[in-house]
Design brief:
2 copies of one chain form a homodimer. The first copy, chain A, contains 5 helices and 8 strands, in the order αβααβββαββββα. By secondary structure, the first copy, chain A, is of the alpha+beta class. Chain A has 2 domains: 95 residues, no CATH class; 113 residues, Hotdog Thioesterase (Thiol Ester Dehydrase, Chain A, Roll). In chain A, strand 7 and strand 8 form a beta hairpin.
Chain lengths: 210, 210
């Protein structure tokens, strides 16, 4: 599979170097997104802010890496640094950091702040769906090492999910041919807020290649 | 309902002023997020970029508006400018701009770029879930004018959703007491990519108040 996709491989050392270089840049960007949500600064300040932001965009565009996928040499897992759920380098992502148990179970603890708010004080229902779709997919694909796409997913919202520290968890229930059935949930300190079940499917091209 | 939530009301004129002031600021921020995904600039440039970003954050934090909800005077709809799906002022949002037909049907045409990518070239399945949850909720709640929360939602992924221009659409199928059943889909130029059905529920406090 790695050959088909033209993966680059990154050593643990280079991974750590890039992580410590670009991780804090993205963290700064997340704080800027949060500051922009409710700012009421005047027109001159907005103009000055825009000019500064556009200048930074120009700086970062000076050198861009090709969008080929990168595999971590030691774990064999793709880095997916630009992913909107787990991407260390995508300011849209909380980011979730996924923990993989030997049993195949996955979990992640992360915090959702004001940028993920739907109804006042609560996480947007669609953001709950995003994090659950992602972690069920991680469980179903053994940490994204197998090509599997969401077939169907059902989410049951038991109650509102408050903004703040949360936990997501997922595991494989069973596998039938090309279909993997996964389950999981999102929870706060009081217990489960959203339950999820999904079917993840190996695409035809990967079945043929297998 | 507006009184219970402590809504502020904004005139059409003030709405337009804020929109033209803060909209382009958020657009600049979205371009910066995209530039950060795959930048390969060196350590000195990253340090310079971070310092500039942190300085802008400080500028925007100088004056923040209270997080009370704001109603548009003419339409009676909440602005939800900080919403992660439709928020004009949330750089995480594409943003979707929702069109409301007299029939109650909602639709939106928007573009999803590299920041929303899951598998190479395709929209992340969880982002499809985010935009569909949001537009089904808009249909079920008459443009967010009624308090309704997602009860359950099921998404069927018919095929991959390519990055690029997309359309989402939703409508109410039926209403039974406190439950509203909505359906919708996401599509590209070739047709439907993801189907969704959901149940949206009036919370107990709003039923009691009704």
């Amino acid at each position: 599979m790695s050959m088909d996709f033209g993966y680059d491989v990154v050593t643990a050392e280079e991974y750590d170097r890039q992580r410590s270089l670009y991780g804090p840049l993205t963290e700064s960007l997340r704080r800027l997104i949060a500051a922009g949500l409710h700012t009421e600064v005047d027109e001159d300040t907005v103009r000055e802010a825009r000019a500064a932001i556009d200048a930074v965009t120009g700086m970062l565009e000076r050198k861009q890496r090709p969008a080929t996928a990168v595999l971590h040499e030691a774990t064999g897992r793709p880095l997916v640094w630009a992913n909107p759920a787990v991407g260390l380098r995508n300011a849209i992502a909380p980011p979730m950091e996924i923990q993989h148990e030997d049993s195949g179970r996955c979990w992640s603890e992360f915090t959702l702040g004001a940028a993920y708010e739907g109804p006042p004080g609560w996480v947007h229902g669609g953001i709950c769906a995003l994090v659950l779709d992602h972690i069920l997919g991680e469980a179903a694909s053994d940490g994204l090492t197998q090509p599997k796409f969401t077939g169907t997913i059902t989410l049951r919202y038991l109650r509102g999910t408050p903004l703040g520290p949360l936990r997501a968890e997922a595991y494989i229930e069973r596998t039938e041919g090309a279909k993997t059935y996964a389950r999981g949930y999102l929870s706060d300190a009081e217990g489960t807020t959203v339950e999820a079940e999904g079917v993840f499917i190996v695409p035809a091209w990967a079945r043929d290649a297998g």
